[in-house]
Design a protein that fits this description.
TIM Barrel, glycolysis, lyase, magnesium, Enolase_CS, magnesium ion binding
Length: 154
């Protein structure tokens, strides 16, 4: 099915403790599809380090309010990037209109953000903040497009 459809990303493709399954999934699909660990890593650098060493995926979902501090959040992003992985900065359920994740995604140069469909104010606030950042950056702003998936062979 992965070769029959234009799938670019799979989030939480397997159970959070199925490390062997994640390794196999990454071995089979990891050069073509972004395999994002959310429950697998829970924005935790110890779990992420294990995943990097075992090649359990090629991307991490970053939820700043899941791990607790911006220091821990940026450490997880940097660890993923240094391993050649993507980091997807994400909202959580029960989200507010706070737009910090937009600034975090741009400031940490992740190129990827997950904020849901552009409906309801808590989601549109994040997209509006991205537009404001783009305006502030002017010609320095760059839309990565498919280049955001820099670790895939396409």
């Amino acid at each position: 099915w992965a070769s029959s459809y234009p799938i670019i990303s799979i989030e939480d493709g397997l159970a959070e403790e199925d490390w062997d399954g994640w390794q196999l999934l990454t071995e089979k699909l990891g050069d073509k599809i972004q395999l994002v660990g959310d429950d697998l890593y829970v924005t935790n650098v110890n779990r992420l380090s294990r995943g990097i060493k075992s090649k359990a995926s090629n991307s991490i979902l970053i939820k700043p309010n899941q791990i607790g501090t911006l220091t821990e959040t940026t450490a997880a992003i940097k660890m993923a990037q240094q391993a050649g992985w993507t980091a997807v900065v994400s909202h959580r359920s029960g989200e507010t209109e706070d737009t910090t994740i937009a600034d975090l995604a741009v400031g940490q140069n992740t190129g990827l953000i997950k904020a849901g469909a552009p409906c309801r104010s808590e989601r549109t606030a994040k997209y509006n903040r991205l537009l404001k950042i783009e305006n502030e950056l002017g010609k320095k702003a760059h839309f990565a497009g498919m280049q955001a998936f820099y670790n895939l062979k396409r």
